[in-house]
Each structure stands twice: as structure tokens, then as C-alpha cells.
């Protein structure tokens, strides 16, 4: 009985994993498809043509560049702002902690469409033309909360004695921060920055509302979805997947290989 | 430097200021403008003005109540479906994952590494009329000859379920992983069956994960419009589709803002009711 149930659970988990991974396999497979018409829906034949010319379709390269620029800028700014908030929350007692936590928490529980729409009403009412910089503003806004949550999780358990030791040895607060605090919290900050970058590069809804005539990669895909998505979109999608999953995989494998007991 | 030494109590506020200012200006202030816009009338040609047009709300609700109900319904079904798929999966990874836990978790979040729109388009391919899935289902007789999967409510709900599944599975995994295995052993030592031990020990201890997972899935699902757009037809259109087209295509800003506000309020009310019903004390949240 226990034997059956054990395998029932394994079989169920296997099916669930298959369900999760099937669309990814489809994305990768159809990047090698040679479609007959504009629509890349049915398998016609194998080709490497799209991989040899990933930026073939007009506008695709500009869209990817815009996405990368915005993601780099927004994740840098959001990481800086979010890390400072996380430091204040974990390290200092101050009045207004409840309000601060609420302000961090609310954007996480508001549907993206409401975040995007309300930001658009701000720009509309103030007569600000939407475009590259309004997308940047929006991305920093929704990235901050995620950075705070990520960095905070790594800051808990941080040994303050190390900083006090540095101060006792004559380091001023800035030297202490730069030479002691920052190196210690760097893994958390890096995790926050990576998350912010990933969220920014994938964001569609908030971007759609505040993009004006600027086209990011997800907006390009949205536009193409109506007239037929070129297979190069699958190539780029596959590349993004391989890079992101590869980074995570290295991280996981390092942890698996690490001997028990070591931190 | 001396200034900071003398006013140490100011340091946390200096750290908070830039980030909170950003959130205040680009998150809180916009909420005010959303409310303001929802009471405006006008058009792109003559401009928009605040006329305290409360009828924006009544018109919006009477015209689009169907899309509202559909959004809540689809999001609710997708949340339950995601829970049913995720719970055994998270249980498997937490209790049977062993040293492969990290790798299995990576598989759970793998869909997030494919751009949202692209993975939804992949479902379009999978469910398409001349795809294998429809072919097989027609052969075994589940679907009739002319029946489709794409452009149905099922496709839209399935798409929503898929897209937000990791939001459900991760909190479930975290709460299951934290359970002290000795508690389950103790229950079994005291002659409870495996099923009893699960129902009376494991399940109650995992409720915080269920709570967090259902909220994290339901909220984005209720506001979603991508799945209805790519996998459905106008007959499956959700409130997000209406808001999107009114803001960006029809420039009917007053009603669009009113609809956004109602959506936000409806979700807040549902969260409060849900939190009360489950009882946060017992949940330990």
C-alpha cells in the first residue's frame, strides 16, 4: 500500500513537471521550425535559419536593446533604493516602521493592470509624454518592493559586531559600510538586483500602459501576436530561458556539490 | 560626518527617503490621480475635466458587470486548479526531494524564465485546432469533430492556471519544507494512519502556504487580460481586457479609471474577507 502511494505521488509529480515544462519545449522546438506562412503554429520542417539571423525581423533588435537598457537602469536604481530601505528596516529602530512596511507591501498586492493604469493617469493629468523614461520610472517603482523583500531576507542574522569592530579600529561610518557591511550583504544585494532585472525584462502589463511609442521586447511580441509571430521571437525566448535557467542551475549545482555541514 | 554622528536618529530616515519618495510619487500619488480621473468626462479632442461624474461608476458596472463576474470566476477556478496541481507537487519536492530539492524547485520556476507572452503563445500553439492535443482528443472522442480547445473558457482558465502556478507552488513548498518531520513521526507512533497524520498534522501546518499561495495567484489572475486575449475570444473577455482597451485604444479615460478603481476595491474586499474567514491568528501569518 505504502509502495503504491509512494509511486502514485511520484507519478503525479512527474505529470505536473511535464505540464510545467511542455510549453518551454514547444518554444524551443518552434525556434527551429520552418513555417509556411506568417503563422508559426504547426511543425513544417527543421531549419537553423532563424538562429543564424536572430535579429532579422524589422524592429526586433531595437526592441531588445530598449528592454536591456531599461532593465539595466531600472534594476540598478531600484537595487540602490531598495537596499537602503532594507538596511533601515533591519538595522534601525524608528517611528513609522508600520507605514513603511505598508508602502512596501501594497505594490506587491495590487494587480499590475491597476499599477500601470494609475501611473498612466498621473502622466496624463500632468501632461507628461509617455516613452522610454516613463517605462524606466514604472519599472523602478515595481522593482523596489521586490528588492527590499529579497535583501531583507539576507540581512536578518547579519552580525553587527563586525561593524562595531571596524568602528573601534578607527574606521569611519562610510569606510565601515564600504569595506565591511557591503561585502557581507553583497550576495543579498546581487540576488535583489538579478530579480529586479528579470522582472523588468519580462514586464508587459505596466509597460504597455506607460510606453507611448517606445517598443520593448514583450511589447514587440504583443504587436506581432496579431499578425503572426516571427520564429525569431522563439529564438530570443529560448536564449533568455537558457541564460536565466543556466545561471540558476550553476547556483543549484554548487549547493548540491557542497559537502554537508558547510554553509 | 559630524552631522551624522550628532544626529544618529536621522540615519534610518535618510536611508528610507529616496526609495519611499519614489513609491510615494509613482505609486501613492497615481492612486489619487486614478480616483480623480475616474470622475472626469471628456474626449481626446475637447480635453478632459473633473466633473464629478459618478455615473462613470454606475455606467461602468452596469455595462461590464459580466466581465467583472467572469474575471472573479476565472481567477477563482484557476486558483483552485493551481492549488490542486501544486500541493502534491510541493509535497513531493519537500518530502521526497532529498538532495535534488534545489533542482526540482528550479523546474517549478522554469516557466518564469520564458517571457510571459511567449509561454502563453506556446499554449496557443499546443491547443491550436490542428495541434496534436486537439487531434488526440478528437480521436478518442472527448472532443467532437468541429470542437475546439483554443478560443474557449477552458483554454483561458488553463492559461491563467499555468502562468501563475509557481506563485502557488513556492509558498506551499516553503510551508511544507518547514514542517518538523518528528511531528509526523510522533503522530504515527501514536497509531494515527498515514492519512490521519496528513489531515491532522501536515495539512494544518501547511495552511499558511495555502493562504499565501491562493492570494499570490488570485490577485494577478483577476487583473489578467493576456490569456483572454491570446487564448480566448471577446466572449471570454475579462475586466482587464476592457480596462486595457478603454485606456489605450478608446481613450475613454473616465470609465477606464472607474473600472480600475472598482477592480482594486473588489480585490481588497475579497482579501479582507478571506483573511478574516481563515483567521490570521490560527494561520500564524
What features would you describe in this structure?
The complex is a heterodimer of chains A (263) and B (285). Chain A has 263 residues and is mainly α. Chain A has eleven helices and no strands. Chain A has helices at residues 2-29, 49-52, 60-91, 97-109, 112-126, 132-155, 161-168, 173-202, 205-210, 217-227, 231-257. The mean pLDDT of chain A is 88. Chain B has a domain at 73-237: MetI-like (MetI-like fold). Helix content of chain B is 75%, strand content 3%. Chain B is globular. Mean pLDDT of chain B is 88; it is low at 281-285. Chains A and B meet through helix 1, helix 3, helix 4, helix 5 and helix 6 of A and helix 2, helix 3, helix 4, helix 5 and helix 9 of B.
Fraction of residues in helix of chain B: over 70%
Q: Outline the low-pLDDT stretches of chain A.
A: none
CATH top level of the largest domain in chain A is Mainly Alpha
CATH superfamily of the largest domain in chain A: MetI-like
State the total count of DSSP E strands of chain B.
Answer: 2
Give the helix/strand class of chain A: mainly alpha
CATH superfamily of the domain at 73-237 in chain B: MetI-like
Q: Please state the structural category of chain B.
A: mainly alpha
Main beta sheet of chain B, described? Answer: 2 strands, antiparallel
Please report the number of helical segments of chain A: 11
Task: Please report the number of helical segments of chain B.
Answer: 13
Rg value of chain B: 24 Å
What is the string of SSEs of chain A from the N terminus onward?
HHHHHHHHHHH
CATH-defined topology of the domain at 73-237 in chain B = MetI-like fold
**Proportion of residues in β-strands of chain A:** under 5%
Count of domains of chain A: 2
Give the CA-based shape of chain A: globular
Low-confidence stretches of chain B: 281-285
- Give the second-level CATH assignment, the architecture of the largest domain in chain A: Orthogonal Bundle
Radius of gyration of chain A: 23 Å
Strand content of chain B: under 5%
Amino acid at each position: 500500500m505504502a509502495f503504491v502511494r509512494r509511486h502514485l505521488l511520484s507519478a503525479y509529480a512527474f505529470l505536473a513537471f511535464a505540464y510545467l515544462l511542455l510549453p518551454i519545449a514547444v518554444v524551443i522546438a518552434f525556434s527551429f521550425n520552418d513555417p509556411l506562412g506568417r503563422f508559426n503554429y504547426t511543425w513544417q520542417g527543421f531549419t537553423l535559419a532563424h538562429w543564424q539571423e536572430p535579429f532579422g525581423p524589422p524592429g526586433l533588435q531595437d526592441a531588445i536593446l530598449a528592454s536591456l537598457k531599461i532593465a539595466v537602469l531600472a534594476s540598478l536604481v531600484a537595487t540602490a533604493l531598495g537596499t537602503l530601505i532594507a538596511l533601515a528596516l533591519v538595522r534601525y529602530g524608528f517611528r513609522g516602521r508600520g507605514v513603511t512596511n505598508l508602502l512596501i507591501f501594497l505594490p506587491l498586492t495590487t494587480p499590475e493592470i491597476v499599477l500601470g493604469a494609475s501611473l498612466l493617469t498621473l502622466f496624463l493629468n500632468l501632461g507628461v509624454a509617455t516613452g522610454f523614461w516613463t517605462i524606466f520610472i514604472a519599472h523602478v517603482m515595481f522593482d523596489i518592493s521586490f528588492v527590499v523583500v529579497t535583501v531583507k531576507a539576507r540581512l536578518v542574522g547579519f552580525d553587527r559586531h563586525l561593524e562595531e569592530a571596524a568602528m573601534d579600529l578607527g574606521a569611519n561610518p562610510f569606510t565601515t559600510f564600504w569595506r565591511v557591511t557591503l561585502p557581507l550583504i553583497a550576495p543579498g544585494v546581487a540576488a535583489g538586483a538579478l530579480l529586479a532585472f528579470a522582472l523588468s525584462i519580462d514586464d508587459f502589463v505596466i509597460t504597455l500602459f506607460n510606453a507611448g511609442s517606445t517598443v520593448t521586447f514583450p511589447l514587440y511580441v504583443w504587436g506581432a501576436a496579431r499578425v503572426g509571430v516571427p520564429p525569431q521571437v522563439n529564438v530570443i525566448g529560448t536564449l533568455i530561458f537558457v541564460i536565466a535557467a543556466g545561471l540558476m542551475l550553476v547556483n543549484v549545482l554548487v549547493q548540491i556539490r557542497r559537502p554537508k555541514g558547510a554553509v | 560626518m559630524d552631522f551624522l554622528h550628532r544626529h544618529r536618529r536621522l540615519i534610518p530616515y535618510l536611508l528610507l527617503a529616496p526609495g519611499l519618495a519614489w513609491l510615494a510619487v509613482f505609486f501613492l500619488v497615481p492612486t489619487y490621480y486614478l480616483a480623480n480621473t475616474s470622475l472626469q468626462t471628456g474626449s481626446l479632442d475637447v480635453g478632459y475635466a473633473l466633473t464629478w461624474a459618478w455615473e462613470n461608476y454606475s455606467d461602468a458596472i452596469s455595462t461590464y458587470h459580466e466581465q467583472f463576474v467572469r474575471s472573479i470566476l476565472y481567477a477563482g477556478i484557476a486558483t483552485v486548479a493551481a492549488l490542486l496541481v501544486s500541493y502534491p507537487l510541493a509535497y513531493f519536492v519537500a518530502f521526497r526531494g532529498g538532495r535534488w530539492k534545489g533542482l526540482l524547485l528550479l523546474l517549478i520556476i522554469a516557466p518564469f524564465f520564458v517571457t510571459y507572452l511567449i509561454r502563453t503563445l506556446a499554449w496557443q500553439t499546443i491547443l491550436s485546432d490542428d495541434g496534436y492535443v486537439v487531434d488526440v482528443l478528437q480521436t478518442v472522442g472527448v472532443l467532437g469533430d468541429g470542437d475546439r480547445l483554443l478560443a474557449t473558457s477552458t483554454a483561458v482558465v488553463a492559461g491563467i492556471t499555468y502562468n501563475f502556478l509557481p506563485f502557488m507552488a513556492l509558498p506551499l513548498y516553503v510551508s511544507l519544507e518547514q514542517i518538523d518531520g518528528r511531528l509526523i513521526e510522533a503522530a504515527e507512533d501514536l497509531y494515527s494512519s498515514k492519512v490521519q497524520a496528513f489531515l491532522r498534522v501536515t495539512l494544518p501546518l501547511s495552511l499558511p502556504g495555502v493562504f499565501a499561495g491562493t492570494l499570490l495567484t488570485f490577485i494577478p489572475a483577476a487583473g489578467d487580460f493576456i490569456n483572454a486575449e491570446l487564448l480566448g475570444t471577446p466572449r471570454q473577455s475579462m475586466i482587464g481586457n476592457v480596462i486595457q482597451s478603454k485606456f489605450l485604444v478608446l481613450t475613454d479615460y473616465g470609465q477606464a479609471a472607474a473600472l480600475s478603481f472598482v477592480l482594486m476595491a473588489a480585490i481588497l474586499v475579497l482579501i479582507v474577507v478571506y483573511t478574516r474567514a481563515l483567521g490570521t491568528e490560527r494561520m500564524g501569518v
